């Protein structure tokens, strides 16, 4: 028996979906080991996670609330990775967007409600987009690796936010807690259901996914992004404006992450604090990879990742197993889907015959 | 004037070297991986895993050096995983590295929380103590700066020499450098490209883990969440700054340590007028600046990020 690798040319949508589902299942299978070490039966833990994320209307609302920023950061990573622009800075861009939303929406501009919400959304998109333009320009102009720059910018932005919420924009009524002045009530996103936290940001995320899907599959820009991502010299040769495309992708990607920040401030918290995001930017990378960088897939993948986090919190309260379990599942899903990508690109072929190894026997 | 006088104190230089130590380990590790053609963005997580594993081993009753070995082993395991994904399967080094960071970090945190479910203050160990080497430690100025550090700091300095010797003075080093530049030439010599790359990533990852172990076993005596705080990413920037050379890597880490030690002291001088976060931002801004300054003329290993398959040109 002899095993060889053969490249595949045709990768169907179904195959991609199956690979992602298998990757998620494999992650759960692997995490069963540490769960057992923590002294709980994995099946019990997973059942509690499922109940905690989908078991009731309230649980489902929590999952959707958690999925909202993940849709947006997932889209941010998906569009950037398609162009091979490695934006690992969604976390910082999220905070930049949130900061802009608070800056515009907390009384600086006295706009009526229907205008205030579009104003903070626009401000957040611009702030996030501009923050991502910096590493994109440094890459194009100086050849500085955008991975490192975006990663380091995350730390800088969060420190900048801490500085502001302990200083100029600190809420004097917050009993000493470092948090910003609250957003005006008129700027808050409407809730979708009574007594549930899920809010209008979800609709924005779904619309963004739809627009992005149309953009990447049906427009010239979408073609240019794919061309730049697949082969820069060839794209340049074919007349694609490579640098302009990279900058556009940077703006869109950063803008989407900034929008996630607006959504968290205006939809959930109502103010800005340094713990606004428990790593939504980094989880967005996993979401994008699980989605195979497909904008509509991002919605499903975000729902999955959100369910893992919400479910793990609930499971943790019931069993005492650390909720870092969720981070483990998510990290392993990423690695498993990466391995799955290998099997999408290559077909294992089993040939009858004598392998060189067996020849001596 | 007072500010410049800081530069003449023993305390300042001793602190600079202390701050540089984890970076020396990290930069050397990243350098080994990248010289062989593999970017290892798992570094941030491997730091965390090393910090946790080394500390946990000592906390459970092992000796300090056993703890160091455990940390290195933890690094090696994540290195092996990264090597399988990027060298054997040829998958995206960027995504695999981020995945390793997420995995190693969450494994470190999960293990810590599982072993110590209900602690409010992190338990402490007895960490490495400053050395007292006869004669050397008593030299004025240089003695306290260089030789009253802990054994791990001296190990970092020794490793710079070892890595430089290995890379430039041994056949293995020649092959390692070639494998990151022109893997086909290595293959033509009958050496295993994959074997060399896998070995380099494992060794490099162990070094990264030692950087983490220094944090919990020498700089501090306990494990905290978020204690690595971007040090791994800073190392990735420093490797470019150092043009992938061990000597320059040492210099870069020391310069960085000196800047950081200086800003901490500056903070006590002018902290009343400038918010503390401005100073905390400095290391990250400095890293970006260093990267931008050298990036254009940086001589990247030519096969960095390029997977290699047998029989492929």
From TrEMBL, chain B:
Pfam families assigned to the protein according to its UniProt record, in alphabetical order: BPD_transp_2
Location of this chain's protein in the cell: Cell membrane
Bilayer topology term: Multi-pass membrane protein
Keywords assigned by UniProt, alphabetized: Cell membrane, Membrane, Transmembrane, Transmembrane helix
Keyword Nuclease: no
Keyword Transmembrane helix carried by entry: yes
InterPro entries referenced in this protein's UniProt entry, alphabetically: ABC_transp_permease
Transmembrane segments: 12-31, 38-58, 64-88, 95-112, 146-168, 198-217, 272-295
PANTHER family: ABC TRANSPORTER PERMEASE PROTEIN (PTHR43370:SF2), SUGAR ABC TRANSPORTER INTEGRAL MEMBRANE PROTEIN-RELATED (PTHR43370)
Protein name: ABC-type uncharacterized transport system permease subunit
Organism annotation: Phyllobacterium ifriqiyense
